[in-house]
Specification:
The chain is of the alpha+beta class and about 140 residues long. It has six helices and six strands. The structure holds iron/sulfur cluster (SF4) (2 copies).
Length: about 140
């Protein structure tokens, strides 16, 4: 419990995060089949722009375009084994895959798949927000 509180503190106060990750990966492979790429503040919409990005990070060299939707270009990772749904480079997978999911997902308009084993929990729960408001009101109106 104490470790969780420390983790929440670091995430929210030091890293400015609003969510923390719970659960575990059940290796369904869904997040490797529907990928959006965010560069700085925008989601990549254009194939030419994506080709330039491929020089920047090895992760991008793994991706192939499979479509486009209202969010942006949709990619699939070529390292995903189509039969086992497992990552073919699991031990050497990039950090971005190790850290998935992160809350940037929400800022891109994305979401976790329904059967993803992870959940993104708000660091400050609704009950805690209510409690803070209640205490604030008591202090303001003694
Ligand atoms: S490198 Fe592996 S874990 Fe990362 S997106 Fe590709 S298949 Fe998934
Ligand atoms: S969608 Fe979730 S459970 Fe499925 S492979 Fe990705 S992280 Fe793991």
């Amino acid at each position: 419990m104490m470790l969780l509180e420390i983790k929440k503190f670091i995430l929210s106060r030091i890293l400015g995060r609003k969510y923390y990750r719970t659960g575990h990966c059940n290796a369904c492979g869904k997040c490797c089949r529907q990928i959006y790429v965010k560069h700085y503040k925008h989601v990549i919409q254009d194939e030419e722009e994506f080709k330039k990005l491929q020089y920047l990070h090895r992760f991008y060299t793994y991706l192939k375009i499979i479509g486009k939707d209202e969010i942006g270009l949709v990619f699939e990772c070529t390292n995903l084994d189509p039969v086992t749904h497992k990552c073919k480079i699991h031990k050497k997978r990039p950090g971005i895959c190790r850290r998935y999911p992160q809350e940037e997902l929400f800022s891109m308009g994305g979401a976790l798949s329904d059967d993803c084993g992870y959940k993104m929990e708000p660091i400050i729960s609704f009950a805690e927000v209510l409690e803070k408001i209640r205490k604030h009101n008591i202090n303001s109106n003694p």
